[in-house]
Known about the structure:
745 residues, 48% helix, alpha+beta
Amino acid sequence: xxxxxxxxxxxxxxxxxxxxxxxxxxxxxxxxxxxxxxxxxxxxxxxxxxxxxxxxxxxxxxxxxxxxxxxxxxxxxxxxxxxxxxxxxxxxxxxxxxxxxxxxxxxxxxxxxxxxxxxxxxxxxxxxxxxxxxxxxxxxxxxxxxxxxxxxxxxxxxxxxxxxxxxxxxxxxxxxxxxxxxxxxxxxxxxxxxxxxxxxxxxxxxxxxxxxxxxxxxxxxxxxxxxxxxxxxxxxxxxxxxxxxxxxxxxxxxxxxxxxxxxxxxxxxxxxxxxxxxxxxxxxxxxxxxxxxxxxxxxxxxxxxxxxxxxxxxxxxxxxxxxxxxxxxxxxxxxxxxxxxxxxxxxxxxxxxxxxxxxxxxxxxxxxxxxxxxxxxxxxxxxxxxxxxxxxxxxxxxxxxxxxxxxxxxxxxxxxxxxxxxxxxxxxxxxxxxxxxxxxxxxxxxxxxxxxxxxxxxxxxxxxxxxxxxxxxxxxxxxxxxxxxxxxxxxxxxxxxxxxxxxxxxxxxxxxxxxxxxxxxxxxxxxxxxxxxxxxxxxxxxxxxxxxxxxxxxxxxxxxxxxxxxxxxxxxxxxxxxxxxxxxxxxxxxxxxxxxxxxxxxxxxxxxxxxxxxxxxxxxxxxxxxxxxxxxxxxxxxxxxxxxxxxxxxxxxxxxxxxxxxxxxxxxxxxxxxxxxxxxxxxxxxxxxxxxxxxxxxxxxxxxxxxxxxxxxxxxxxxxxxxxxxxxxxxxxxxxxxxxxxxxx
Length: 745
Ligand code: ADP
Ligand code: MG
C-alpha cells in the first residue's frame, strides 16, 4: 500500500530549512519518498499508511524545529494578535538597532567618544538577551539536536564580543542578526509570491443551479455535471462545457494571452478564465484541483522538487560553508589572537545566500511563466533548456494546425485500373465509386482519435454520407486503422499499412497499384498525407489530407537557431516525399529571415522510432528538446531532456507528459521559453558569483581585522538583498516577442 499525503509545514525560512525537514521526515518509518517545498510551505510524502502515521511525521517535524499546520488556517486567537504586534516591535527594534549602530560606528570612526561606555553593562546584557531571545532559543535547541546553524556561529561571535567587554558591539550584532533574519524571511516570501499569486487566482465559489434556484456554494461542495451560472465579468469557476449563452472569454489566466475568444453553446471553457459581455450556463466537467488551472497550480507548486544541477551543487556547498567559516574563525583566533576579528568572521557568515541563489531565480521565472501560459515543471528544465543543442519537432499537430482536411479522392472508375482523381475542394462531380471509398474510410475511422480520422469523418459528413458503425476496430499507431465492416476487413492508413498487399500479388495487380502510386506521388509532392483504403486485401482507393502549416513556425524556428540550437529536425510518421515538401514550404516561409540551415527531417517513423532517435542523440552527448502535442508523442517527450507540449490547455495527458507545457498553440512561445531559460541561468550565475565574491571578500577582510564586527553584522543581509533584487528582474518578464515581424504566410 502506498498513498501520497500533503502536510503544511510552518517555520521554514530558507532553503537549508527544507533539507532539515526533508531529512527529519525521511527518517520516519514507512516513508517512501518526501519532497519539501519552500514556495508552498508543505511536504509531499509518499508513504505506507500502515506503518507511518500523521502523528509520527508531526513529531519528527517538531523535533527538527518546525511546526505542522499552516499559519493562515489559524484564524482566531494568538496568531492574529502576534501578526499585529510583530511589525511594531520589528520597527521599534530596527530603529533602536540603527541608532545604536550609528553610535557605535561613530565611536569606531572617532567621531564621538565614550557614549556607550557610560551605559552600565547590565543594561546592555538585558538588551542582548531580550533582542536575541528568539535566536538564542533556536540555537540552543538546535545544539541539543546536534545541529550547527549560521546563527550558532554568530552567537559565538556575540559571546566573543562580550568576553572582551565590547558590550555595545555585542548589542549591535544581536539587533542586526534579527534584522538579517527578517530580510531572509522577506526574501523567501518574495520568492514564493509569484507562485502564491497564481494560486490566489483560483476561483473559490460558484453560483450553481439546484432545484430551480441559483445558490452560491464553495468550490469544494460542487459536483461534476452540475450547471453553474456565470455572469458578465465573472470568473468561470470550473472547467466545463457551455450549455447555453454566448460570451467573449478572456483566457489570460490559462494561456497568458488576453485576446478574448468567442464562446458559444458546446464550447469548452476553463476555470479561472473570465466571461466578458455575456452570461453563461456551464456544465462542470472538472472541478477544483482537477481543472487545467488547478493542475497548473499544483505542478508549479511542486516545481521545486525538480532541482537544477547548479542548485544541487550550491546546496552541497552550503553544507560545507559553516565548517569552513568555523575553521577560518579558529585560525584567526589562533594566529592573530584577535577576538574581535574572530567575532567578525563568525558574524559575516551567511550560508543561506548560497542556498537561495538558485531557487529564488528559478521560482521567479517559473511563477512569471505560469502567468503567461508557460508551465515549467522545475528549474532543472530551465537549466537543461539553456544549454540544449538539438530541437526535435513532432510534425502533426505541432508544426501544422493539426486540423487536416481531405482535399482529394482517388478511386477506380469502370475498369479496376482506371484510377480517377477528384478534388473535394472544387465544384467537381463526385462519382458513386469515390463516395463509396470515402464512406468506407469514414466508417473504419469512426473510433480513431487521430487528426486525419477526424478529417475523414468530417469530409464524409459534408458529402451527406450516412454514418455507419464498424463491428470491430483496431488502431495501429503510426500506421492507420483496421476495422470490420459488414463482414469485410477494411484498412485505412499509410503505405506501410498496406505492406502485406505488396507481397503475393500477381503482375496485373502490381501494375494496377503502380498506376495508383504514380498519381499519388503528385499529391505527396504537395505535402499531402495519403490514406490508402483497402477492403479484404484489395486497394480500393485513397484519400489525400492536407494540413496547414502554422504561420509563425518559420520565424520561430529561425529565432530558435539564433538562440544557439545547432540543429532542428522534423520527425514524422508521414512518408519521405510528404515530409520533404513540408520542409520545402518551411524554408520558403522563412524567406524574410535567413535561410534555415540545419533544418532536417526524418520520415516514415513509428512512434517508438521517435523515442529511439531522442535516445541516439542523447547517447552522443547532446541535450535534446522535443516539441510535440503531448498526445501521441508523450513517450518521446518524456524521453527528451526537455519535452515541450504545445497547446496543452485542456489536455490532461499533455500537461502530465511534458516537462514544459505551452498553454496556447503559439510557436513563438518556443523561442520565448528558451530566452527565459538563458536569462534565468544568467541571473542564477550572477547570484552565485555575487555571493561567492561577497563572502570571500567579507571573510578575508574580517579575518585580517579590517572589518569590525558591527559592519560585518550590518553587511550580512547584503547578499540576500542583492540576490532578491537581481532575481526580481525575472518577475517582470518583458514581452520580447516581436509581433508581426514574421507574420508572412
Ligand atoms: P505524425 O504525428 O508524425 O504525423 P503519426 O504517428 O501520428 O505521425 O501517424 C503517422 C502516419 O500514420 C500518418 O501520417 C498516417 O499516414 C498514418 N495514420 C496514423 N493514424 C491513422 C489513422 N487513424 N488513419 C489513417 N492513417 C493513419
Ligand atoms: Mg503525431
